[in-house]
Predict the 3D structure of the following.
Amino acid sequence: MEYNYKPRFSPTICLTHNCNLDCVYCYQKHDNNCSMSLKTACKCIDWIFENVPDDTDGIEIGFIGGEPLLEFELIKKIINYTISKKTNKNFIFFASTNGTILTDEMKTWLINHKDIFVLGLSLDGTPDTHNHNRSNSYDKIDVSFFKETWPMQGIKMTLSDYSLFHLADNIKYIHSLGINSIDGVNLCEGTFDWDDEKYIPILISQLGKLVKYYEENDMIQLDQMFDRKIELCETEKLRRKWCGIGSGTVFFDTDGTKFPCSFITPMTFSKSELDEICSCDFCNDTNFIDDDCFNNCYIYPICPNCAGANYLSQKSFKERDKSKCKLQKLITLYVADLLAKRMIKNPDRYDDFTKRQTINAILKIKELYLQEFENYLINIE
């Protein structure tokens, strides 16, 4: 079986640096007076449609901030301008929002344009966890609107050290709202010390609860943390970038300046850092391969890595941030445990190749990593 990685053209337009929240894990510097003009936005759209790579099926144009819905009138004008171009290329717009400033008028427009504009919600779990992480904003969000308007769209969850203590309850709570897909369960970036040993027993407890939950509710789509294709660890490793930084993820700042991706922005880095970053040869994947990880880490093919976030902590694209290694190995152990249980329960869901590769990966992952956590009384059969 071959796994095809077709590049996706996903340019992003920053509408504003402004945000109405102050989340505990935010690494950005927000400027209330920095927003994009319609003239600049139209130039960005023109550039995007003139530079679509040949090997892509369509375009997903992202709106970002700050909080992009603070520039809702601009969003409407940009979409109208794009439609007026009468292009024969397939395109769709997407924005991720904190969901706190939606008005009835906005909702009506969004419903009428839901086939061309998808809005994704950031939601960190229960009201308690969400309020701790995201400025006491839970009661300002109409979760039902997102669920009913874009039923196939998952939510994005970011983990702080506080939410790690309640990870299982947070994920189960989101599923209880009728949301089947959690597209992102991400350890937050910035100054959090994820290699602190105190997180290991906490995560063990939470992952154990989630394995039991997902085993009992095996029709629920696995969240991004558990939806790891561990069978890829048994195939030939590819010396390629993890993401499309510098190629498929071009980012336009509010003044129209292009940057390599939506993480590499003046909201995150200084001008001197941006100059250094942009001097990188993004077409050379070798600049993004940590040779130690590639050669020596079994789970390298499935270990998530944001190049921009990596540069934030390491001042390097090539040398990976190792602070999350132990947590990633622990998470993968529980993924292997869950997949073993699901395969026993529903063997017909897997083709023979995937089944064979997954079983080999399960055995190898336990052989490599189980002993490392034995002092924490890990409970994996």
Q: What stands out?
A: The CA atoms of residues 63 and 300 lie 31 Å apart.
